[in-house]
Design a protein that fits this description.
Helix 5 (155-173) crosses helix 8. This protein has 304 residues and is of the alpha+beta class. It has helices at 41-50, 59-70, 86-100, 127-141, 155-173, 187-197, 209-213, 215-228, 243-253, 260-270, 286-303, and strands spanning 6-22, 25-37, 76-84. Strands 2-1-3 form a 3-stranded antiparallel sheet. The longest helix is centred in the middle third of the chain and has 19 residues, at 155-173. A hairpin with a 2-residue loop joins strand 1 (6-22) and strand 2 (25-37).
Length: 304
């Protein structure tokens, strides 16, 4: 079929945020399936999983989609390239599967069970031709022919890429387009999620951002998070917390003692910044004074 009505699509896991770059393609969520098609092909896998007693040729992919749906999320489905001729879509599908790698072969994270090129209007791709397509992708996207060869994205550029992707994803994941729109997790679902993490030790426990991600990436992540939580970007921007909410926060934090290391880190962050309470006068009640001195006494005992 010699028409440019085809596209190459990709499924992303909305639970796994990050920066995933393959050649000239960057995704803000972890990819788990690559395909090629036309019309509404990219949504078929989702419909199959939602239908009862409907089987497909890839149980591995369907299991992944079902897990995402069970946690009240929805897979992010993107067209990587569109308005392609069939052979072009096929070439890109094969190259992306090769670049990202297949989980069943322990070469990557995709749930694809083949190297691509299986649905070309009934045509069977020979191993020799498949290798030729991979080589084509290598020759046009890797090494010195890649626009990023020998270069590294600066923290500023990474932030710009992330911001651009975030705006795109925001349009796909906010409001009615979000799989959780109008829904609330049931107590059973929350318990299930909690149980899945209970007893597991995070690989990040006891480590700083610098140790986990490296100094440059850690700095980029801090800047990115700070930017997203500042001003109108902050989810509670312009919202006044109720007295009840403030009391709940106070009760939750009551009795917590910060370690010396945490206090030193907080002091570094605040150093040179004006206090929000500077110039204000407070009237302390006797109860507040007693609690304040008691807290200080506890902290001195911990430092000793």
């Amino acid at each position: 079929m010699n028409e440019n009505i085809f596209y190459t699509y990709i499924y992303l896991d909305p639970r796994k945020l990050g920066l995933y770059q393959y050649g000239n393609y960057t995704f803000e969520y972890e990819p788990f399936y690559v395909g090629k098609g036309k019309g509404n092909r990219l949504n078929e896998h989702l419909y199959i999983v939602k239908k009862e007693n409907c089987k497909s040729e890839n149980n591995y992919r369907d299991y992944k989609i079902r897990n995402i749906l069970d946690e009240n999320f929805k897979p992010i489905i993107l067209k990587v390239e569109e308005n392609l001729f069939e052979q072009e879509a096929l070439n890109l599908e094969i190259w992306l599967i090769w670049a990202i790698g297949r989980a069943n072969l322990h070469t990557g994270i995709l749930t694809n069970l083949t190297d691509g090129g299986d649905g070309v209007s009934g045509r069977i791709i020979s191993e020799r031709e498949r290798q030729r397509m991979i080589d084509w992708g290598k020759n046009n996207s890797l090494g010195e022919k890649n626009g990023m060869f020998g270069k590294t994205h600066s923290s500023e550029t990474k932030m710009k890429i992330s911001e651009k992707l975030r705006v795109v994803m925001k349009g796909k994941l906010t409001g009615e387009k979000n799989g959780m729109f109008g829904k609330t997790l049931s107590a059973e679902a929350r318990k299930k999620i909690g149980d899945s993490f209970r007893g597991k030790t995070s690989h990040m426990k006891g480590k700083s951002y610098d140790e986990i991600h490296g100094k440059e990436k850690a700095e980029y992540l801090r800047e990115s998070h700070s930017r997203r939580m500042t001003g109108s970007e902050n989810p509670i921007f312009g919202i006044q917390r109720s007295e009840e909410t403030r009391e709940k926060i106070g009760k939750k934090n009551k009795g917590k003692i910060r370690t010396k290391e945490v206090r030193e880190e907080m002091s570094k962050v605040r150093k040179g910044k004006p206090s929000g309470n500077k110039g204000k006068k407070f009237k302390w009640s006797d109860e507040d004074r007693i609690r304040l001195y008691a807290d200080r006494f506890k902290k001195k005992k911990v430092d000793k």
